[in-house]
Amino acid sequence: FVRCMLHSCYSSLILFFIPWAAMYDTVRDDGKDIADYQSFALLAQTCLLMAVNVQLCLDTHYWTAVNQFFVWGSLSAYFAITFTMYSNGMFLIFTSVFPFIGTARNSLNQPNVWLTILLTSILCVLPVVAFRFVLMQLRPTINDKVRYKMRKEAVPAPTPRRHPRKVSTRRSGYAFSHAQGYGELVTSGRFLLKRPTKSRSTLFSQVDSPLAK
Amino acid sequence: MMASSYNAKDEDGHITVSGPGGGTLKNKKPDNTAFKQQRLPAWQPILTAGTVLPAFFIIGLIFIPIGIGLYVTSNNIKELEIDYTGVDMSSPCFNCSQNFSWNSTRPCTCTIPFYLEQAFESNVFMYYGLSNFYQNHRRYVKSRDDSQLNGDIEALLNPSKECEPYARNENKPIAPCGAIANSMFNDTLELFYIDPNGTKIQIPLMKKGIAWWTDKHVKFRNPGGNNPNLTAVFQGTTKPVNWRKPVYELDTDSENNGFINEDFIVWMRTAALPTFRKLYRIIQKKNSMIPTLPRGNYTLEVVYNYPVGSFEGRKRMILSTISWMGGKNPFLGIAYITVGSICFFLGVVLLIIHHKYGNRNNSADITN
């Protein structure tokens, strides 16, 4: 709980103060205003969205085509909706509801703004990555150790052995528990032997092959 | 084993079950496609030393040059700020700031001399800055009527309720209504250059091209279409309480009069922070041989109309050049350099940790 609290406090501070400091007394590259209320709101909103998306990418355990579609799709939908909401047409039809007209066009074409967004998202995600990495080094969980071992064993045997066992076909993250799981594997001690075990290695070598290269 | 029996009928999705009457039941199992059986090819990001450490070093190495570039660009921007609030006795504008009253017909002027150390080249932008002015107060920001400002005749004569109490005055609707319009900045600033002979030359200031294109051409429109006679169009409305002139007398140029007056538009774009600057005029560059503002003595003449003493605000005039990253703001450069170096340092620290403790992955006590 404390870790979550710390992480969220840190993210909130970053997501506000970096755009604030970047916008303080700043103007566009043609001299016109950018530090107005609407542009600042748009900037903070976009920073937040990018940071959340990057965090999501990091936390997704199994990247399938569906995942890719939804993550990139949500980002493009955000930009599409933002531009639509801030377009001339919507303003002219519903004047008081969409007063932010022109804000996206005028602020998102500034390199200043994009650099701020990049900085904020990376700054939000860096501690998470570093923390997880350190945890993995100092206190590896059983999962991590298994993965490490499997990668070491999979690398010298690059051809994946497709075993007709059906348990390896179920590959989505949550369904891990529906498959055999580690129990039988670990207690039988086969795992500790140096020869690649058939049921596990197919699973991991399939998944790890892009990384193992 | 549970696993084997589970697997036997898993793959085949088209088992037909024969019922007792000899008919076949259509099976309800999902099709045996990769998508429905969740067999899509997948990739799993695992944080290993081989991916994380290079990533940290690369990010560090990319950010530091970006930060240096931003910082150098920001330092090359020339800026000059003159605070002309007139709070202490020695300031030329002290009299103006003290003797303020709304009904004074004779405007108070003050003159501030200053010296420009370096010549300013290319387009120079003149801003007015206010401090301690909360244009981001919620009730203030809502106090406007965008339909009226868009030229809607209906809204011109019946301003929305958001504008209260600045919607009507003496039973006539106020155009433009609202607190934002009412508090429009109305000081006049003029620049004079004093050349070595002693003659005072007025510097030409451009008042067009200071507002966003979308604001001037889409968001703000004068009512009555393109009718050049704005006095007639605004018949039946009255000026905001704190204004000296009505909205159709803001400028003699008809392209800059009424609601599409650029100073008005710039003011209506409410600022996000209590200390802000807004573009006032542009000093165009002359040919590339002569600097736009040469070194030397200048004077700033202020027609002091705008009172800021009641909320302890400050007013200033800012002259600035511009680069591709906007005005002078070294924060982004410094932030990038800092983050880049922290990243690099963190990468080194993680490398050390990995070397010392990374072998725990190889330990044999896994089954316990």
UniProtKB/TrEMBL annotation, chain A:
<protein>
    <recommendedName>
        <fullName>P-type ATPase C-terminal domain-containing protein</fullName>
    </recommendedName>
</protein>
<feature type="domain" description="P-type ATPase C-terminal">
    <location>
        <begin position="1"/>
        <end position="141"/>
    </location>
</feature>
<keyword id="KW-1133">Transmembrane helix</keyword>
<dbReference type="GO" id="GO:0007030">
    <property type="term" value="P:Golgi organization"/>
</dbReference>
<dbReference type="GO" id="GO:0005802">
    <property type="term" value="C:trans-Golgi network"/>
</dbReference>
<keyword id="KW-0460">Magnesium</keyword>
<keyword id="KW-0472">Membrane</keyword>
<feature type="compositionally biased region" description="Basic residues">
    <location>
        <begin position="160"/>
        <end position="169"/>
    </location>
</feature>
<dbReference type="GO" id="GO:0140326">
    <property type="term" value="F:ATPase-coupled intramembrane lipid transporter activity"/>
</dbReference>
<feature type="transmembrane region" description="Helical">
    <location>
        <begin position="113"/>
        <end position="135"/>
    </location>
</feature>
<keyword id="KW-0812">Transmembrane</keyword>
<feature type="transmembrane region" description="Helical">
    <location>
        <begin position="7"/>
        <end position="27"/>
    </location>
</feature>
<dbReference type="GO" id="GO:0045332">
    <property type="term" value="P:phospholipid translocation"/>
</dbReference>
<dbReference type="Pfam" id="PF16212">
    <property type="entry name" value="PhoLip_ATPase_C"/>
</dbReference>
<dbReference type="InterPro" id="IPR032630">
    <property type="entry name" value="P_typ_ATPase_c"/>
</dbReference>
<dbReference type="GO" id="GO:0046872">
    <property type="term" value="F:metal ion binding"/>
</dbReference>
<feature type="transmembrane region" description="Helical">
    <location>
        <begin position="70"/>
        <end position="101"/>
    </location>
</feature>
<keyword id="KW-0479">Metal-binding</keyword>
<feature type="transmembrane region" description="Helical">
    <location>
        <begin position="39"/>
        <end position="58"/>
    </location>
</feature>
<feature type="region of interest" description="Disordered">
    <location>
        <begin position="153"/>
        <end position="172"/>
    </location>
</feature>
<dbReference type="GO" id="GO:0005886">
    <property type="term" value="C:plasma membrane"/>
</dbReference>
UniProtKB/TrEMBL annotation, chain B:
<feature type="region of interest" description="Disordered">
    <location>
        <begin position="1"/>
        <end position="30"/>
    </location>
</feature>
<keyword id="KW-1003">Cell membrane</keyword>
<dbReference type="GO" id="GO:0030658">
    <property type="term" value="C:transport vesicle membrane"/>
</dbReference>
<protein>
    <recommendedName>
        <fullName>Cell cycle control protein</fullName>
    </recommendedName>
</protein>
<keyword id="KW-0812">Transmembrane</keyword>
<keyword id="KW-0325">Glycoprotein</keyword>
<feature type="transmembrane region" description="Helical">
    <location>
        <begin position="46"/>
        <end position="72"/>
    </location>
</feature>
<keyword id="KW-1133">Transmembrane helix</keyword>
<dbReference type="GO" id="GO:0005783">
    <property type="term" value="C:endoplasmic reticulum"/>
</dbReference>
<dbReference type="GO" id="GO:0045332">
    <property type="term" value="P:phospholipid translocation"/>
</dbReference>
<keyword id="KW-0445">Lipid transport</keyword>
<dbReference type="GO" id="GO:0016324">
    <property type="term" value="C:apical plasma membrane"/>
</dbReference>
<feature type="transmembrane region" description="Helical">
    <location>
        <begin position="331"/>
        <end position="353"/>
    </location>
</feature>
<keyword id="KW-1015">Disulfide bond</keyword>
<dbReference type="InterPro" id="IPR005045">
    <property type="entry name" value="CDC50/LEM3_fam"/>
</dbReference>
<dbReference type="GO" id="GO:0005794">
    <property type="term" value="C:Golgi apparatus"/>
</dbReference>
<dbReference type="Pfam" id="PF03381">
    <property type="entry name" value="CDC50"/>
</dbReference>
<keyword id="KW-0968">Cytoplasmic vesicle</keyword>
<keyword id="KW-0813">Transport</keyword>
<keyword id="KW-0472">Membrane</keyword>
<comment type="similarity">
    <text>Belongs to the CDC50/LEM3 family.</text>
</comment>
<keyword id="KW-0333">Golgi apparatus</keyword>
